[in-house]
Design goal:
Layout: E1 3-8, H1 15-23, E2 27-33, H2 37-44, E3 58-59, H3 62-67, E4 72-75, H4 82-91, E5 95-99, H5 108-125, E6 129-132, H6 139-149, E7 156-164, H7 173-180, H8 183-186, H9 189-198, H10 210-220, E8 224-232, E9 248-255, E10 260-266, E11 280-286, E12 289-292, E13 295-299, E14 310-314, H11 317-320, H12 326-336, H13 355-368, H14 376-394, E15 400-401
Parallel strand pairs: 1-2, 1-4, 2-3, 4-5, 5-6, 7-10
Antiparallel strand pairs: 7-11, 8-9, 8-15, 9-10, 11-12, 12-13, 13-14
Helix pairs in contact: 1-13, 4-5, 5-14, 6-10, 10-14
The structure holds nicotinamide-adenine-dinucleotide.
């Protein structure tokens, strides 16, 4: 017997996941939820969804969805809503998937409080929380995770990660913001943010740092202990940045494994479109191996002074990706090409092809009642790193400790 899933938030991003969840062979039924009924109807009436979605499983509020018999809920709503909604789902006795990040709010203490509340709810309810971070299922992260598990890097020395998304990039942040702050839920944002602004609280791109930080931290399975950061403010009075004290932040973290990690979060920057590898990526260097772009370079040094040989390997995206069970892969192919045959290659889409892997790993976690592949402790740590970097940047690079949580 398969599982029953609910999906709340069928906006621009949630729409990219509905068919993948429907296609997964371990999903028997999907309940759809958006407070804008036409967004639900679009999927209810889509022939691809037939057999797993019905009118009685369509909802206009998360409250109703939480009262239903679903085993788990996927939350892909506006980023300032994630944490309270995830907590509501856990308290209803269901597993939960959260779009990134944990939550965006200009008050760092509140961000941490939400993370702690969710961690307590996971413990209390025995239900799991998974953060849906796309970078963690990019092909580069998958291969590095496998290489690290085999000890191929040796001792880690240094890593660098960046997310460079200019405000006027083709995936235009002015437009994204407009969509998220209009409509039934979005239009409540102005009232929600006003008290923070009146307290003089501002943000920086480190308030949403998961795409740059998560790859290296997840691969090295370590934690950041302290940071020194530098911020660049906006200087041309761009109204988009009126709530930002910095539009570009560069941070150097000291890690618990002894290595250094340089992170850039840039929103006002002359660089290319976001899905190109050099705009959302990382590099990792160890004493025996290093990964840059799609190349792994390694030496076989073991005894000092003994002749060392060097090898390099260039990987294709397909080689870097983890394997999916064949029955899952066949169904996912049909999402992208309804006429796909078993001989056709699988070409996953969305943020480096990460979307089907996020879907599979969440469904597997729920079906097997297994541990979360990206648990709340990791989600909270990413936020604590961004918060510490902001504090340091506001103090002109002073070294700041990263708050730790078990
Ligand atoms: N690479 C990535 O991981 C990545 C990329 C894009 C977006 N995202 C995340 O995905 C999330 C969604 O982004 P988007 O662009 O789709 O936003 P969006 O505004 O287009 O969609 C959000 C939807 O959620 C619905 N909603 C909110 N609260 C609800 C409730 N209580 N009940 C029913 N419906 C509710 C809204 O009506 C809206 O349709 C964001 O938080 C963003 O951070 C992540």
């Amino acid at each position: 017997m398969g599982i029953k899933l609910g999906l709340v938030g069928l906006g621009s991003f949630g729409s990219q996941f509905a068919k993948l969840f429907k296609a997964h062979p371990l999903v028997d039924k999907i309940a759809l939820c958006d407070c804008e009924a036409e967004k639900v109807k679009k999927f209810l009436n889509d022939p691809f969804m037939a057999g797993k979605v019905s009118e009685k499983d369509c909802y206009e509020s998360l409250d109703e969805l939480c009262k239903s018999d679903v085993d788990a809920v996927v939350v892909i709503t506006q980023p300032w809503l994630h944490a309270p909604q995830c907590l509501q789902v856990l308290n209803a006795g269901k597993h939960v998937y959260s779009a990134v990040p944990l939550i965006t709010l200009p008050d760092p203490d509140e961000v941490i409080d939400w993370g702690v509340k969710i961690a307590e709810a996971v413990k209390r309810t025995g239900r799991q929380y998974m953060l849906g971070e796309t970078t963690i299922y990019r092909p580069q992260t998958m291969i590095c995770r496998r290489l690290a598990a085999q000890g191929k890097f040796g001792e880690f020395v240094y890593a660098e990660g960046e997310y460079t998304h200019d405000v006027d990039n083709p995936c235009n942040l002015r437009e994204v913001n407009k969509t998220r702050t209009t409509g039934k839920v979005g239009e409540q944002f102005a009232a929600l943010i006003a008290p923070y602004l009146s307290r003089g609280l501002k943000t920086t791109p480190m308030g949403y740092p998961t795409h740059s930080i998560s790859g290296p931290i997840h691969v090295m399975q370590t934690r950041a202990v302290s940071v020194s950061a530098i911020g660049m403010p906006n200087t041309n009075h761009d109204p988009f940045f009126k709530w930002y004290d910095f539009t570009d932040v560069t941070a150097l973290f000291k890690l618990a494994n002894g290595a250094a990690l340089r992170i850039c979060e840039f929103r006002e920057i002359g660089t290319e479109s976001i899905d190109l590898l050099n705009a959302e990526t990382f590099r990792i260097f160890g004493k025996n191996g290093s990964f840059t772009r799609n190349r792994f370079l390694e030496n076989d040094r073991s005894i000092p002074g003994k002749k060392v040989t060097w090898n390099h390997q260039d990987f294709t995206d397909a080689e870097m990706r983890d394997e999916l069970p064949p029955e899952v892969l066949e169904q996912f192919k049909k999402v992208y090409n309804p006429n796909a045959t078993p001989d056709d290659d699988f070409q996953p889409h969305g943020h480096g092809g990460s979307h089907p892997y996020l879907v599979h790993n969440f469904v597997k976690m729920v079906a097997e009642n297994g541990p979360s592949p990206i648990p709340i402790g990791e989600a909270l740590h990413f936020m604590a790193m961004g918060i510490a970097a902001n504090k340091s940047a506001r103090r002109d690079g002073e070294v700041v400790k990263v708050e730790q949580f078990d």
